[in-house]
Structure prediction request, 132 residues.
Amino acid sequence: AALECVAVAAPAEMSVAPAASVDRLLDEAEEALGALDWTRLVTRKRRNVIPDGEVEAHTIVLGIHPADGEQSHWMDRADLRAVYDKLAAVMKAHDASFEWHSVQLNKNLATKAHCDRGNRSPSCIVTLGDFT
Prediction:
């Protein structure tokens, strides 16, 4: 697992948990994500990220949706709420001062180059899994 905050300058007072703690939390998050049934976790609406020629992608938003400021309907599912909570714990341990409102989950998706209109600050990117 890897955790990389993109274009975020770390303030001198930033408190970061020991790497072992963050790694353990990342492992727990990866396990929870691996247990999800992604069959119905799809979108057809985000044409800006769905690869050309595809009609849907395994991509969902958890937390406060940046487009409308409302809580994502996916948060009603206990399994997805648990994933959100685990990822929130990762971020808190990594950098408690990093302000965020949503988590974008993608599975097996190489998005088209795009800029999210709802972003208010830099993004933190977490990649989990085996890559070849």
Notes: The first strand starts at residue 2 and ends at 5. Confidence is low (pLDDT under 50) at residues 1-16. The two ends are 14 Å apart (CA to CA). The first helix runs from residue 19 to 34.
